[in-house]
Specification:
The chain has five helices and seven strands; from the N terminus they run ααβαββαββαββ. It is an alpha+beta fold. It has two domains: 48 residues; 147 residues, Heat Shock Protein 90, CATH 3.30.565. The chain is globular, with a radius of gyration of 20 Å.
């Protein structure tokens, strides 16, 4: 991997003595941008290889809880209050727990970005069952989505983040994963302020093994 070599040698140079402040800044820039290129390549590879995962019974509440644990530090640092509403007895869905957690994490991190700098920032995660499907709503009270962008939000490489802050592939990958898991995902603006991402997944009718949620 050429990028791995560039990052490795850049790190070695940074660890060496005798660099002037300007030289150190230049090498840090090389390392930072190389890491960004590495992230873009990984996302491109993942986007091109979205495929059916390991299907199992997935407890959505447990999967969301496990994802929130992964994002706990960022949410706490941003001062975001998380409100969850999962009814008792919510049936499992059939899908790949790890892939679904990746989708949840992408949505949560997008919400975090949308609420950046906001006082009383709040993320609501609501679940319900209707007509044989589980609906998961991720609602934030951030800046919302410009109406002209709603139809493009899941397009590859589309992003409203500043240059260098995103690849525009996170939601595209999420869209593909949800489709592979026989579900749908949409974005909508909330009355007043904020946005919501709504995921619909079919209820698992099969009985048997215990539902997974942690992806482990």
């Amino acid at each position: 991997n050429p990028l791995g070599g560039i990052m490795g040698f850049a790190q070695l140079v940074l660890n060496s003595d005798g660099l002037s402040p300007q030289q150190r800044e230049d090498v840090e820039t090389i390392l930072t941008q190389s890491r960004r290129c590495d992230d873009i390549v990984k996302n491109l590879l993942q986007f091109s290889r979205i495929r059916k995962g390991n299907e199992m019974r997935v407890d959505c509440r447990k999967a969301v809880e496990a994802t929130l644990q992964l994002a706990a530090f960022d949410l706490r640092r941003a001062g975001i209050k998380v409100v969850k509403d999962f009814p008792e007895g919510l049936p499992p869905v059939m899908g790949d727990a790890g892939q679904l957690q990746q989708v949840f994490l992408n949505i949560i991190m997008n919400a975090l970005h949308a609420m950046e700098g906001k006082k009383r920032a709040e993320l609501k995660i609501l679940a319900s069952e209707t007509e044989g499907r589980i609906l998961l709503r991720f609602e934030d009270n951030g800046c919302g989505i410009p109406p002209e962008n709603l139809s493009k939000i899941f397009d590859p490489f589309f992003t409203t983040k500043p240059a260098g802050k995103g690849t525009g592939l996170g939601l595209s990958i999420s869209y593909g994963i949800i489709q592979e898991n026989k579900g749908t995902i949409r974005a909508e603006n909330l009355p007043g302020q904020g946005a919501a991402f709504v995921i619909s997944l079919p209820v698992c009718e099969e009985k048997g093994e215990k539902a997974a949620g942690s992806g482990r």
